[in-house]
Design goal:
- The protein is an alpha+beta fold.
- It has two domains: 75 residues, Alpha-Beta Complex (Type Iii Antifreeze Protein Isoform Hplc 12); 118 residues, no CATH class.
- It contains five helices and ten strands.
- The strands form three sheets. Strands 5, 6, 7, 8, 9 and 10 form a six-stranded antiparallel sheet that branches. The protein has a two-stranded antiparallel sheet with strand order 1-2. Strands 3-4 form a two-stranded antiparallel ribbon.
- A hairpin with a 6-residue loop joins strand 6 and strand 7.
- The chain is rod-shaped, with a radius of gyration of 34 Å.
Length: 250
């Protein structure tokens, strides 16, 4: 009889323990669910943010807005302040209404040249020799003009004359001239190349003067680092070379 009572007591105790554990689990689960359903404030794109957009532009152009969402749908890396992006650049397209995450931005140096072009801008690799590309002088961040020489047909007999003019102005140097050392890639007959920032329209002119220029076709000329000025658009040919004086001192 005592043995039977003992077994019943153990069963009752185990049942009570199971009930307690179940109750604790249910309470914790409810707390977890309630925590996940809690509202948090996140920043979302007020409009599309294209890849390459700087964090400073995101802030200045008010491309973010606050939105309240359930805690459980907040994305990893979600930012709480626009200032967190001020030193970074978008590395992925972010569409209107999407949460903005720090994982979709990176430091400009991690992007390299890609961080320096946007919109209609392009990176153009221009081959040439050291004289054409100002090797030993040109540095990243400099601005240059491109002056070219080509032949203009002047008669039905196929005769032509040479003309020279500045064809492009104020191009940003993305990479300085690279030579034929083992650490660089040789390009073109001159064994050197430089990367310039141009627009898609300017790239057509640059390619044209490469392919149609006379005796190398072009030369880069370094602009002053500040307060640079341009003369009016002119050209030079054999007739003007004879009639023009030496010109004014710069």
């Amino acid at each position: 009889m005592n043995y039977r009572v003992k077994n019943i007591g153990i069963a009752v105790a185990l049942a009570a323990l199971a009930a307690i554990l179940t109750s604790v689990y249910v309470v914790n689960y409810k707390r977890h669910v309630q925590h996940g359903e809690g509202k948090v404030t996140v920043l979302v794109a007020a409009r599309d943010i294209p890849v390459g957009t700087s964090g400073a532009d995101v802030i200045d152009k008010k491309m973010l807005k606050q939105q309240t969402v359930p805690r459980k749908v907040r994305v990893p890396g979600a930012i709480s302040s626009p200032d967190q992006l001020s030193q970074y650049v978008a590395i992925q397209d972010i569409f209107q209404g999407e949460q903005v995450s720090s994982r979709r931005f990176a430091a400009p140096q991690e992007q390299g040249i890609r961080a320096k072009i946007k919109g209609t801008q392009r990176a153009y690799q221009l081959p040439g020799n050291g004289d054409q590309l100002l090797a030993g002088t040109l540095q990243v961040g400099d601005h240059v003009d491109v002056v070219g020489t080509w032949e203009v047909k002047t008669g039905t007999g196929g005769d032509g004359s040479l003309v020279s003019r500045v064809v492009l102005r104020d191009l940003l140097v993305l990479t300085a001239p690279q030579g034929t050392s083992s650490s660089t890639v040789a390009s073109g007959s001159g064994g050197m190349s430089v990367q310039l920032r141009v627009t898609d329209a300017q790239s057509q002119k640059l390619l044209w003067i490469q392919k149609n220029g006379v005796d190398g076709g072009f030369h880069l000329e370094l602009r002053p680092p500040s307060s640079s000025l341009d003369t009016s658009n002119t050209y030079q040919d054999s007739r003007l070379m004879l009639s023009d004086g030496p010109g004014r001192r710069p």
